[in-house]
Amino acid sequence: MDIIFIYNKALDVTGFTILLIKIDASKAGGGKPLDHEVPIHVVTESSQLPDEFLNPSAEKQLIIGFDCEGVDLCRHGTLCIMQLAFPDAIYLVDAIKGGESLIQACKPALESSHITKVIHDCKRDSEALFFQFGIKLHNVVDTQIAYSQIEEQEGRIRLPDDYISFVGLLADPRYCGTKAHNSTKLNGNRNLNKKMKTSNGKKIEFLYNPLYSCDLYLEDLNAGISYLEKEEVRVLLRQDPMFWTYRPLSEMMIRAAADDVRFLLHIYYKMMEKLNQRSLWYLAVRGMFYCRCFCINENDYADWPHIPPIPDNLIIEDTAPEEEILSALDVPPGKMGRVIGRRGASILSVKESCNAEIFIGGAKGPPDKVFIVGPVKQVRKAEAMLRGKMLDIY
């Protein structure tokens, strides 16, 4: 027996768990308003997923929000939940209860070029899917990459390692401003009460529904979306890394998982309005590199989809973008400390000298490689500098 939550009502139903959240944003999914009740389904069997997702086709192209939750999410961790946000519903695919057969049923969709997966920083999610289930995540729009491309288009310079977090993206009014929300409707609900909370010494106003336990934080009408529950979940994860393995899923777990995807389609359409053709090509290529970045194996990505060439319409004399590549640089045992340097100073100096992105596996691994993404000349320059660090001649 499961529960449906509809603001101030709780109804016993059979089937899968549904949590109805009132979302009010301007657009999602081909311009469909988000001022309707969006059901959240906890999925334990593939039959509970939409047929157009399970059987991708060129005739039914889809754009969905996507994310994963788990324990130490990487090649060695445990994938617990996959979140899929459609324009009219959110599906929480329960890998713990549904098992490998449920995740394998999603493989065609996750690898399909007919389904666009909108995600924020896909590297570790892709790694977990690849090593735990043999899934090669493909056709993603990574909002972290898109954000950087838009910043570059608009003339802002990003510092090395200055990647926008998902919480930071939600707080950016250009993509998720509360001005797009109908505060009259929110305030008109008799169950919603204005309260104040303090976060990092700052008072934040929010609307609280005591019957639903839903906090919607409003710093002001011109700001982006901010919610403290994300930080509360992070605290719980630090206290108990097994948080996402517990069943049945609590209301907080369902809300937290859904919150990570429910605005992604809205953000996607906002970003697509801003990206030019050059940036869209970079977005596609770097998204493919992000997906395979930590997924290196003995065949050197040979069985992954090919990287698209530079489009003809961008090859115009000296303004054509440079070819992009992904390089996986081997680091001999005992040399990673030299590569990173004291407090990261060594690798930071390389990042500042090269127009390329540089990632290390860190504690999650792989521990003996450095991954470099960018234009060919800049990647080769970074490789040479990093090899020099290993030899301690720089």
Please compute the radius of gyration using only Cα atoms. 22 Å
- Strand tally is 15
| Secondary-structure element pattern, one letter each | EEEEHEEEHHEHEHHHHEEEHHHHEHHEEH
Across the major sheet, the strand order is 2-1-3-4-7-6-5-8-9
Low-confidence stretches: 1-36, 179-195, 202-222
- Tell me the β content: 15-25%
Instruction: Look at the helices and sheets and give the structural class.
Output: alpha/beta
Distance between the termini: 65 Å
User: What is the tally of helical segments?
Assistant: 15
- Describe the sheet with the most strands: 9 strands, mixed
- Overall 3D form: globular
Fraction of residues in helices?
Answer: 25-40%
The whole-number mean of residue pLDDT values reads 81
Describe the structure.
It is globular and about 55 Å long. It contains 15 helices and 15 strands. It is of the alpha/beta class. α5 (143-153) packs parallel to α11 (264-274), α5 packs antiparallel against α12 (277-292) and α14 packs antiparallel against α15 (376-391). The model is unreliable at 1-36, 179-195 and 202-222 (pLDDT under 50). Pfam families: DNA_pol_A_exo1 (PF01612), KH_1 (PF00013). This is 3'-5' exonuclease domain-containing protein. Residues 323-391 form the K Homology domain.
Descriptive tags:
KH_dom_type_1, 3-stranded antiparallel sheet, 15 strands, single chain, alpha/beta, disordered N terminus, globular, about 400 residues, 9-stranded mixed sheet, 3'-5' exonuclease domain-containing protein
